[in-house]
Amino acid sequence: MGTLRSNTSTKTGRAAGVLAGAVAIAAAGLAAAPAASAETTGAPCGPKAAACVDLSAKRAWLMSDGKVTYGPVPMSAGKPGYRTPPGTFAVTWKNKDHWSKAYDAPMPYAVFFTKNGIAFHEGDISRESHGCVRLRHEAAKTFFAELQPGEVVQVVR
Q1: Are 97 and 83 in contact (CB under 8 A)?
Q2: From CA 64, how far away is CA 2, in angstroms rounded?
Q3: What are phi and psi of 95, to 5 degrees?
Q4: Which residues participate in catalysis according to the annotation?
Q5: I need a surface site. Which of 4, 110, 129, 141 has the fewest CB within 10 A?
Q6: Contact (CB, 8 A) for 76 and 68
Q7: Which Pfam families does the annotation name (predicted)?
Q8: Taking the model in full, what pTM does it have?
Q9: Which domains does the chain have, with CATH numbers?
């Protein structure tokens, strides 16, 4: 009967062989890419989302095919009584120089994604909103430029 030996150099050699094999398979294009998830993208939204909002983390991203293309960026959302609704929506329309009649306030770079007026727009992220997702100037410009009507916006808690 043979003896069971613990040989560090043999284990190291096997690990190196396994790693070399994995590298060769990946280089040959034979390995499937992992599915996009919060762990691989940093964003907690699904692969169809063009924009992702995490209300609890107060972060937003732009995405394409499940991969982050911009962000995360800090943001603020709705205050008590005016909470930003979680769910999956679609961009409905955009207005670079929108003025809110309801709140008599500017909403620069507005990208609307609900039927009741919730939008991404430039604003003071140190304060909560009446439901909109406020972004700093550069982020608001980028979201405005990149998002198009019909694209998916996913808002998670």
Answers
A1: no
A2: 56
A3: -150, 115
A4: 121, 132
A5: 4
A6: no
A7: YkuD
A8: 0.75
A9: 43-156 (2.40.440.10)
pLDDT digits 0-9 by tens, 92-127? 999 999 999 999 999 999 999 999 999 999 999 999
CA angle 52, 58, 62 (to 5 degrees): 25
As given in the structure block, the two tokens for residue 56 are 């609890």
Sign of CA dihedral 67, 70, 76, 77: negative
**CB neighbours (10 Å) of residue 124?**
10
User: Is the CB of residue 107 less than 8 Å from the CB of residue 117?
Assistant: no
Residue 129 is classified by DSSP as: B
CA distance 45 to 66: 8
- Give 55-95 pLDDT, tens digit per residue: 999 999 999 999 999 999 999 999 999 999 999 999 999 99
Supply 145's token pair. 């430029």
